[in-house]
Amino acid sequence: MDAKMMDAVSADMMSMPGMQSMDMALMQACMDACAACEQSCTVCAVQGMDCAPASMNCADTCNTMMRSMLRMQGMTPASMMAMLDACIAMCETCEDMCLPHAETSEVCKMSAQACRACADACQALKESMAV
Amino acid sequence: MDAKMMDAVSADMMSMPGMQSMDMALMQACMDACAACEQSCTVCAVQGMDCAPASMNCADTCNTMMRSMLRMQGMTPASMMAMLDACIAMCETCEDMCLPHAETSEVCKMSAQACRACADACQALKESMAV
Amino acid sequence: MDAKMMDAVSADMMSMPGMQSMDMALMQACMDACAACEQSCTVCAVQGMDCAPASMNCADTCNTMMRSMLRMQGMTPASMMAMLDACIAMCETCEDMCLPHAETSEVCKMSAQACRACADACQALKESMAV
Amino acid sequence: MDAKMMDAVSADMMSMPGMQSMDMALMQACMDACAACEQSCTVCAVQGMDCAPASMNCADTCNTMMRSMLRMQGMTPASMMAMLDACIAMCETCEDMCLPHAETSEVCKMSAQACRACADACQALKESMAV
Fold this sequence. Notes:
The structure is a homotetramer of 131-residue chains.
Chain A: H1 3-13, H2 24-45, H3 52-70, H4 77-98, H5 106-130
Organism (chains A, B, C, D): Microbacterium pullorum
InterPro entries (chains A, B, C, D): Csp_YhjQ
Protein name (chains A, B, C, D): Four-helix bundle copper-binding protein
């Protein structure tokens, strides 16, 4: 995400109860991981393989997660935590569905990696909030 | 949702591990509540009130929740539970943001009701899965 | 869509340049057709058939079309016309991809019908605007 | 978008009627512009300004446009052209709504620029297809 736009997002968060301590670098990394995972899973979903339904679910979930971080004025710490948990769970489900094809499909391999990276970025952000 | 299409969704679920006991009537009610909540929150979000960011987050979350139920081949019991929790949390955040305007805005009042109904429908589905 | 919510949408449109003559019954029918088509195409897309990519494109387009009608404050007659044209084109592409499977897949048959109905509803709304 | 993932998208397109001549560099630039515009408009939409409805419409349209390019198997030249026209029209509507605030809101200024860049990228891709 553009650095100036990130500054605008960051400035807004300073006034939100329970959000001031949010690590903006981790949040930006999480948004980027969500955006990358949405794209990978969208491509993976058109291969006609059995991971396609999980890939579509994961793409939609990652897009909603990214948008929610761009609209933190409409989040609470509780809803943020629950969304991060859902995104982690959905990424892990999709990773599990793609991994068995990683040997034969380069797209599934990249998609599984994007899911893992996204789940990890969500987990890191979640841990920073819990402190 | 169309009854014949629901039959197709239902037939698919019979072969999924941990999903056979899913109550299809509760799932259909949950999808309908998600669809209604997405529409209400989308209208609410263009009023220029301070509940708008929560309404946009809730609309996207409800759409993703609804689609995930239409693509249960890509869900596991664990990811389904986490998604339902996130949808409940997001609906409750949005309801809390809309309720203070319920006296002055008919749209916020309807939106808060749609959020409550959606959270309840998700909760009912979640409890049926946990049994 | 809920009748009271539709009244709120309708009231907003009275003040928009070039939108006062919009036929609200046709617009409501179009939103309902978009919502139904999004659901059908989402189910169709998880069958693993070659119409899946078109079905995903159509589901996303119909959702965006429906939301745009719920947010007419952010549309002009020109952007509305272009969106309706795109939705018609996408529905027709998806219908063409699903029809060859209509004999063997009940879901594709329903999906093709939902696409046809949505394209027709968009066309009717477009013609009412052009008057 | 990741270069390896782009190769996979590109390879798929070689077998599609009417798509072989698609300029992949222009398509990648268009996808990146759509992704950037979706993010900018999403941030713009939570400012509570009168461009918010157009920004939400534009964000959804850009996301659908980007996903459609990731799923070209589900597009025809005709539906691709219509989608590009709709995306151009929606970006221009949003740019027009944001520009009046460009002096006072840095976010609106960035959003208007992202809309312009996205409309231009769609136009360039459209012209390459028409040749």
